[in-house]
């Protein structure tokens, strides 16, 4: 995990860019977020372990919905980009990198 002069991790910077409505979303971005979330779950990220069961189910539902939207969009991710972004945001709920991406003033500076 690399840190940048802004204090944000490279993951947080990429998440911030992907969630920006003016950024043209592509398949690779969606796949990157889905893989990022999958890795966090597999590694039992402490931030996820602190979430309630209903919240975890909501995260999973959003993760699944994003995957289905990606599958259904073919090569036209841009047509569903707002819906996909919303799902990705909800799927990452609770992760430190999302908090950093949304609130850079709260970013780690170590």
Beta strand %: under 5%
Distance between the amino and carboxyl termini: 12 Å
Tell me the number of strands. Answer: 0
Mean pLDDT across residues: 88
| CA-based shape | globular
Poorly predicted runs of 5 or more residues? 1-5
Helix-strand topology string: HHHHHH
Q: In terms of structural class, how would the helical and strand content be classed?
A: mainly alpha
Strand count, sense and barrel status of the largest sheet are: none
| Helix proportion range | 55-70%
What is the overall number of helices?
6
Cα Rg: 14 Å
Which features does this protein show?
single chain; 110 residues; mainly alpha; 6 helices
What does this structure look like?
By secondary structure, the chain is mostly helical. It has a domain at 25-96. It contains 6 helices and no strands. The model is unreliable at 1-5 (pLDDT under 50).
Question: Which SSEs are present, and which pair or pack?
Answer:
Layout lengths: L9 H10 L7 H16 L3 H4 L3 H21 L7 H11 L4 H7 L8
